[in-house]
Amino acid sequence: MAAVSDRVDLGAAWRSARPEPPPTRFHQVHGANIRVDPSGTRATRVESFAHGVCFSREPLAPGQVFLVEIEEKELGWCGHLRLGLTALDPATLAAVPEFSLPDLVSLGHTWVFAITRHHNRVPREDRPEAEALVPGRPPALLVEPYLCIEQFRIPRDRLVGRSRPGLYSHLLDQLYELNVLPPTARRSRLGVLFCPRPDGTADMHIVINGEDMGPSARGLPAAQPLYAVVDVFASTKSVRLVQLEYGLPSLQTLCRLVIQKSVVHRLAIDGLHLPKGLKDFCKYE
């Protein structure tokens, strides 16, 4: 198994523990073409490419990630998922706009980011974009168990979407060993959160498969309730919510971290003497 130097830092996990926010759910107010399942955790656009705007049921807490996984795609449309925040209470809207961009944004107090297959990272003065692309440097999601965004430290494990490997994936897919999905692919995980600043404002951050894309909007009113906005737009047809662990990682998560560090790639997990449920959790979840 993993060497001593690879052990999970339980002390760091304890120091970073904070109260668990309530589970995220979709608001009952949404676009005309959206259907939300009875659990409030899955939103599907049933026709057309528009009228797919959804909101979080409750305002987000500072540092709380509203995380969705892309479940279904639909061919024939141009455009992808859009994420953001709004200080507008969805319950007070006379009608949900057809589009988040530009319709909802034009109502004011709303900030939305359009996800693309490439170029989602916002350049930062203190960390140039090119720095994250140095050849030979392993992606942070492989070596750092926590994602640090300003004053918040979030367990990275469930932030990362994982593809379902085929028999020859390890030979044919260059991204297989790193397990990095394109932002707009099925099973990709995308989230939005806000981080308060000392001047009373907040920065909005977009997280894609465990990586912070930087502050995509600044100057948000941190003192006002901020709801998540998810626009199930165009080629994105259905998304589901993913719940995160903000306090101590579960024993299941800690076991997976150790197991993943001891294998070359995910197919090797099949050869371990472990229960099938744990193997599947290590490979896919």
TrEMBL record:
InterPro entries: B30.2/SPRY_sf, Neuralized, NHR_dom, SOCS_box, SOCS_box-like_dom_sf. Residues 23-244 form the NHR domain. This is Neuralized-like protein 2. GO terms for biological process: intracellular signal transduction; protein ubiquitination. It holds the Pfam family SOCS_box. Pathway: Protein modification; protein ubiquitination. Gene3D superfamilies: 2.60.120.920, SOCS box. It comes from the Eukaryota. Residues 250-285 form the SOCS box domain. GO terms for molecular function: ubiquitin protein ligase activity. The lineage of its organism: Eukaryota, Metazoa, Chordata, Craniata, Vertebrata.
